[in-house]
Amino acid sequence: MNTVNIPCFLLAAGRGERMRPLTDSLPKPLLSIQGKSLLAWHLQALAIAKIQDVVINHAWLGEKIEAALGNGEHFGLHIQYSPEGNALETAGGICKALPIIAPEDYFLVINGDVFSPNLPISQLVDTIHKMRKDVSNPLAHLLMVPNPVQHPEGDFYLQDSTVSNTEFSGAEKLTFSGIGIYHKDLFKDLEFGAPAKLAPLLIQAMGQNKVTGEKYLGPWHDVGTPQRLQELNATY
């Protein structure tokens, strides 16, 4: 199998407070839909897209994630882990894991608690190849989705491939899916091992016209509550 030399980072360090009591004894990304954990859905999609190198961060009950997934051999992947004593938020977790991810430039990041079967990872790989040729040197590319019921106000504005934090003519306000492509330089000013949120970094990059995006209309779900998990198990 010809592999794709683009690493992927899966975010799995959250406590999952809204999913309690299910997450009292199990990390949220190991919750299952149709007998397959949320992380396993992502890993199988990555393997199909021929991405081989995966790094997963964890904090709460992280040993259970490592026990469940091992070194990734079962998926045809090479999995490494970035443990966090206390969860470092999204950007802080990425910064701490960067030496393990070891990206040449761009890498893929996926939230471990979203469910998106048929995720177009091969299309995102093609996007990375285009970003490498883009003379504007974008720092991020975000997969945006229509605003779900639980998040009607959305996150960022999208028109064509431009993403902005401020409204502009003709732009549609959408929700960030938790799936994105980032350049390692986006995190260069962060303090290693310190908590840091992703949104301020993205907003700063948007101010420099360094963030692109696309609207995704395929299946995507934020698995945020036990009821939503139950509904997804009944639907799929």
TrEMBL record:
One Pfam family named in its UniProt record: NTP_transferase
PANTHER family: N-ACETYLMURAMATE ALPHA-1-PHOSPHATE URIDYLYLTRANSFERASE, NUCLEOTIDYL TRANSFERASE
Keywords: Nucleotidyltransferase, Transferase
Nucleotidyl transferase domain mapped to chain residues: 10-133
Source organism of this protein record: Polynucleobacter asymbioticus (strain DSM 18221 / CIP 109841 / QLW-P1DMWA-1) (Polynucleobacter necessarius subsp. asymbioticus)
GO molecular function: nucleotidyltransferase activity
Entry-linked Gene3D superfamilies: Spore Coat Polysaccharide Biosynthesis Protein SpsA, Chain A
Name under which the protein is recorded: Nucleotidyl transferase
